[in-house]
Amino acid sequence: MHNFRMIDLNLLLTLDALLAEHNVTRAAQRLNLSQPSVSVQLSKLRDIFNDPLLLPGPRGMLPTARADELRKPLREAIAQLELAVSPTKTFEPAQSHLTWQIAAADYGEKAIVLPTLAALRTAAPHTRLAIVETKSARSVRRMEQGEIDLIFHSMDNAPQGLRHRVLFEENYVLVSRLGHPKLVSPPTLAQFKDLEHVMVSPEGGGFYGITDKVLESMDLKRKVVLSVPHFLFVLSVLEQTDLVAMLPSRLVRNNPALQIHHPPIAIPGFKMAMLWHERSHLDPAHNWLRNLFLSTVGGE
């Protein structure tokens, strides 16, 4: 048999039609070709497979044993090719059984996934959603392999080479437990830096962040007495102690146990975005999921 890469795939379409019709004339009509053209192609196919494939019979042409072996796998292969090149079908969320994989830290879970979850379950009740770790380099590689659909990440230090859409701009607020004895009114700068702070250090163990950078530019320093790697643990700390924290505002919305204060200094916020790989950009299901998140939390 000849090298597969050298075969004209149109010849395989002709063979499929011949094996279905057992007649050169009917195969030609099915392919919208002339009978002589199909006869020429059959001759080429016999040469490729080193087999007559179809032999004259009393009621049309009879397939050889080799032709019978080819019939089913050839039909299945052509059907898969037809499916691959056919126009993309529209996505029907109510009928979908997809499993989506999203990379998000606990802030992204609280500020983006949670507000969207009810709409997702209503519109696509048979789908599943998995939240996975957000280590940038690994997440990008997994996106390239189709293992992750979306990444929720701040635009600062976001993975490069991906498509993105900013969902919203976030700002920082000062947060304490309700009834904090030192925060009966908005704090002055002196009071702010003397409070005991907890901060989130995503890499773990850090006691210096954007708030400290701003204070340092003013030759000031605050008291950071606790550093943790996750936002959600901070909420429990604030509810049960007199520590305070500078946190993204969406993280503490509608929490009756916490009190929000305007800090006495301006702390730069950040833009929160969803990121995806080029390979998923035109996929209807993926586009629907992106638009769902955008319509739920985008532009807030």
Descriptive notes:
The chain is α/β, with parallel strands linked by helices. It has three domains: 4-85, Arc Repressor Mutant, subunit A (Orthogonal Bundle); 95-169 and 271-297, D-Maltodextrin-Binding Protein, domain 2; 172-268, 3-Layer(aba) Sandwich (D-Maltodextrin-Binding Protein, domain 2), CATH 3.40.190. Helix content is 41%, strand content 21%. It is built from ten helices and twelve strands. It has helices at 9-21, 24-31, 35-49, 65-85, 106-123, 136-144, 189-194, 210-217, 231-240, 284-297, and strands spanning 54-57, 60-63, 99-103, 128-132, 150-154, 163-170, 172-177, 196-200, 223-228, 245-248, 258-261, 270-276. The strands form four sheets. Strands 4-3-5-12-6 form a five-stranded mixed beta sheet, with helices on one face. Strands 10-7-11 form a three-stranded antiparallel beta sheet. Strand 8 (196-200), helix 8 (210-217) and strand 9 (223-228) form a beta-alpha-beta unit. The chain starts with 8 loop residues before the first helix and ends with a helix. The model has no long low-confidence stretch (mean pLDDT 90).
